[in-house]
Amino acid sequence: VGSVSAVPLSQQVQGTGGSSAVSKCSAAARGYIQDRFLRLLAGRRRRRAPLIHRGYYVRARAVDHCVQDFLLKTQSHRRTQVLSLGAGFDSLYFRLKDMGLLHHTVVYEVDFPNVVCQKATLIKRMDELSALVGDTVGEGLGAITFSGEDYKLLGVDLSELSELGKALEQAGLDNEIPTLFIAEVVLTYMENSRSDALIQWAAERFPRACFLLYEQVHPEDPFGRVMQQHFSQLNSTLRSLAHYPDCEAQQRRFLGRGWTECSVMDMNEFFTCCIPEDEQKRVQALEPFDEYEEWHLKCSHYFVLTASKGMEPSWTPLLPSVTVPHRAGPVGMAGSVPAVVCARLSGIPGLRRYGHRSVLIKPNMILTTGGFGEEDGRHCRLRNFHVLSRHAGCWKAGCVTKKHADKRWGERLYHTVSCLSDSLVLVVGGRTSPSSAGLGMLWLKFPETYNASDPDDIAVELVNLQSAAEPATLRWRHSTTEVTFKGEQYLFVYGGRSALEPVLGDWYFLNARELSDTVIAVEGPVPESRHSHSACSWEGGVLIAGGLGAAEQPLGSVFLLRELEHGFQWQAVETYPPLIPRYSHTAHVHEGKLLLVGGVWFHASSVPGITVIDLMTGLCLDYVINVEHLEWPLMLHNHSSVFLPNEKELLVIGGGGNCFSFGTHLNPEPVSLSLSSILTTH
Q1: Are residues 300 and 344 in the same domain?
Q2: Helix (H, G, I), strand (E, B), or coil: what is residue 573?
Q3: Is 125 left (phi over 0), alpha (psi -120 to 50) or beta?
Q4: Which single residue of 34, 202, 481, 512 could bond 535 by disulfide (Cβ 3.0 to 4.6 Å)?
Q5: Residue 225 sits in a domain of what CATH number?
Q6: What is the pLDDT of residue 225?
Q7: Torsion angle of C-alpha atoms 292, 296, 297, 301, degrees rounded to 10
Q8: What is the average per-residue pLDDT within 80-108?
Q9: What class of enzyme is it (predicted)?
């Protein structure tokens, strides 16, 4: 993150710049980016999480992509220049010089005086850096802190435009030659009037110019609120967001201030469209990774923008190298569904979790198992089982006592839980860490009778299963669904991922009595491999919807596995309009309608609410969830949901995740969604 802003905030904003340098350095050390200079400039070393590495990789890739495109398009000019605003400890100059790309280009970097002083000292102290710069001249002249033949460091507050103009003139900046301005998470820390003035000043003073902007977007959705809160707590408020909340507003901002061409992409679009497929695969395989939701949400909340004027040929680095649907407009909503907090269930730490499973084990009892969440005031993989029991119309929460427990349970995430009788529940798969092998099967045995008014009084016995069907169970983010074939009950285990395979497309039929793998013929077009999809029992078969596919792209397909006389058949379910691709949602079937709840999609203009698909006609309608009565951001991914058909009510339990470097958000309490209006009018 670059460093600039009003004077009282300069230190906090500079702190974000130091943290960013450490993160970039960690990403380089793991092979995400090739940059041997970061470790020399970052100072301290610290290993970051894979999610952080991916985030800084896509940022570095976007900046390099646009800068190198500028240098390529202007190579016929005798001289060009790059002006990096709020550059902090960035290594761009050294990287470009080392690659031999600065034959006729001078790089100017501007930041607070104390930042450029520290950087100049570092460069002089390290032979590897000073050798690339060569001889220095004219230092100490006004704001010029460091001056090589093709590299200048200037200590100026960017919000003081007259001082900036004077310092640049003194350092030899030429207004008449092609100039690229770079602002990487810099302008957003300035007062909007000052950042707007800077954008306009650049357009007015430089007849042939390009501008590269990278910063945040979408402040008002759940992830955006967590992101804003993080920067506010650092006393580094993101000021641009109120005036320019989306990519279109940023585009209008530049076009209204003297720039004649402007393109913008969020980082999901950039990763998909501008990074070659083999490079995408290389990055996806670098480290064990299982935070897809947070990765895609992070990417939908940052954008890269390029603006230009007077450039021949025109500068358009954000032209996609592959054709994908462009960022679509707003999703048409058919109505809204009210969300309210469940009375009497607030403040129960065990229900704040994600990657867990919740299942109705008796008409008035919900079992929640596994996941990552809050226990004894710390965040960890959870061992505790929780029961919600409804007595006299009210839900009560309790913690289950486990017999023969913890080693067998293994703190699992992304498993499945199937209720096979009033007293028998089967757990299939799941994982501990993404690098470990998947976990096997487990019976949970409940007492036949229980006291609904006292859910803490329930004991469950855990029985480990050494199954012949092990390949079926060593997976996570899969689905396990009850199907019927020739009057016999089977469990259909489908898709998911494993430690070795990032996405699976196979399936198994497990006999519900013996849990043995049974071969049953399946015909028809096989769905593409997927994980984090939804699966529901329907008319003896299974409905599969959405999921994340092999290229880490959300899927919009719906399939029915239908029972035939001699086996099953895959059949595509056409929806009108087409279902917006999504994953990490939950699903339920009610009276011939498939209900999809939440999830993650690439439509940055809104977050998924409830989608209702009429299985007879294929009509597909989206409903927004009205959260005005909630005091906290409702994150509807990695959640679980239970549908209560008599009340036409949906109970959402848990959900959330690690919001990039902004902290972990766990939905603090269960939420009730009343679906009666959309299920009766539909």
Answers
A1: no
A2: coil
A3: alpha
A4: 481
A5: 3.40.50.150
A6: 94
A7: 150
A8: 96
A9: transferase
CA distance 154 to 137: 13
Is 327 part of any domain? no
Question: If you count them, how many residues does the chain have?
Answer: 682
pTM value? 0.94
Residue 368 shares a structural domain with residue 499: yes
> Residue 491: helix, strand or coil by DSSP?
strand
Indicate which CATH number applies to the domain containing 504. 2.120.10.80
Q: Are residues 298 and 343 in the same domain?
A: no
Tell the burial category of 103 from Cβ atoms under 10 Å away from its Cβ (0-12, 13-18, 19+). exposed
Q: Please, which residues have CB within 8 angstroms of residue 99's CB and are 6 or more apart in sequence?
A: none
Supply the range of the domain harboring residue 571: 335-674
Give Cα separations from 343 to 348, 400, 654 (angstroms). Answer: 12, 21, 15
DSSP state of 528: P
Find where tokens 């949901």 sit: 641
Residue type, 562: R
Tokens encoding 110: 């501007």
Residue 351's pLDDT band (cuts 50, 70, 90): confident
Are 301 and 389 within one domain? no
Kindly state whether residues 498 and 438 are assigned to the same domain.
yes
Q: Has residue 515 been placed in a domain?
A: yes
Reply yes or no on whether the pLDDT at 459 is more than 90: no
Question: Is residue 48, in this structure, part of any structural domain at all?
Answer: yes
DSSP 8-state symbol, 8:
G
Reported confidence tier of residue 7, pLDDT bands at 50, 70, 90:
very low
Spatial distance between the Cα atoms of 645 and 168, rounded to a whole number of angstroms: 69
Confidence tier at 321 by pLDDT (50, 70, 90): low
Are 475 and 433 in a shared domain? yes
Least confident span in 458-462, 637-641, 678-682: 678-682
DSSP 331: P
Residue 9 has pLDDT above 50, yes or no: no
Answer yes or no: do 271 and 349 share one domain. Answer: no
Burial-class residue 541 by CB neighbours within 10 Å (0-12, 13-18, 19+).
Answer: buried
Regarding whether 493 and 354 lie in a shared domain, the answer is yes
C-alpha 87/C-alpha 17 separation (Å) is: 9
**Confidence label for 141 from pLDDT (cuts 50, 70 and 90):** confident
Structure tokens at 517: 């793998």
Q: Cα-atom radius of gyration of the chain, to the nearest Å?
A: 28
DSSP string, 445-482: E--S---TT-GGG-EEEEEEE--TTHHHHS-BS-EEEE
For residue 295, what are its two tokens? 């990765």
**Across residues 31-53, what is the average pLDDT?**
91
Report the Cα 199 to chain-centroid distance in Å.
30
Q: How confident is the model at residue 635 (pLDDT cuts 50, 70, 90)?
A: very high
